[in-house]
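#lab-general

N.A. 3:47 PM
ok so I finally got the sequence cleaned up, no stray characters, all 377 residues accounted for. can someone with queue access submit it? mine expired

B.Y. 3:52 PM
send it over

N.A. 3:53 PM
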Amino acid sequence: MLSTSLLIVIAALAALLAAALVWRYIGSRGKPGRENRLRPDQESGSGPRRKRPGRRLFSFLFRRRRNKNAVSGTVHNTHAPQKLPDARKFEEWKMRISSGVDEKMLLDYMEFLRLYPGSRVRHRGRKKVIYSYTGKELGTLKGMFLNVIVPTPRLYTTSKEQFREFLINLGVSGLSERPNYEERSGKLRVDRHLSETDRRIKTAGNIGEKAVRDVLEKLPPEYKSVSGIYLEIEGSLRLELDHVVIGPSGMFILETKAFGITPEGVNNRLVLFINKDGEWSKTEHGRRVPLNSPEEQITRQQQIMQDFFRPINITPRVILVLANRKAALGRIERRPPFVISRLEDLPNYIVKPAAGQELSSEMISSALSLLDMHRLN
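B.Y. 4:20 PM
back already:
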């Protein structure tokens, strides 16, 4: 015979079970549409079948309740797709861009990045999924911009700048400062197959160009310079320019001459002369030495570049720069159709405004983009 305490426990459990059954049964009666569901035999026309009350009552006890707020298969993030991102496509795009990029490919790549939310997945509660870029992915994007996008000659400067701002919005750090897209001359090199005399001349010329670049770096920030540019014009004509400078006061084509500079970097004292017949000479170490006149070469460059920039209504001016800091101008009996400037006087010639030569920021951007379209290096 059971004890009184055991009977009390059994009675309490039976009461709790009965209360649970009643609660679940009553709570389900208010759900719409349950009684209107059709069984397969009803759809086939065999008539309704009544479910036994006891079977229905016990089924509520063991039926799993659903979370009303849960949405199966839905990602609650406006930036994220409805399925997990495929990180392999990110790596595939990296290989494509690294092998060579042009304007169309860059636009397609930006469109991919707009849809790609990043491969890091985080969960908030039971329903919200948040995507973000991993540190490795952000570092990859930064490296591709600096090492692939910036130096490539097949992209407009405006496209590179748009891509930089796009990466900043994605969360890539370290790109807040605009790179100098216009200077991509690289290291000065001398062909090892040149003769000794030509090698010494080329080495001295490189020293002179480096001296001019150092001066151009001190110009106001609104002036952009391009050094060592190699252009392809009209598909067949190729032209190499020492320096191109463009700013509010106009555009300038600089031809550098390293008269009196040795391959060791020594600046010898030198005086330049041009007689009435247009013959050039220099006085060096106390004796007069004839020089090959650069007028024909410079005049040809000037005409080509004037035709090149005519569609955007810009007329470049040519300056011959004496890179030797100890060079001086002697008697100039016949002035050439361009300016001859000593190195220390160069900034004054560039910054000084000339009538009808003022350029707006839009014209400067157009000129830089035109150069980018045609340069080979």
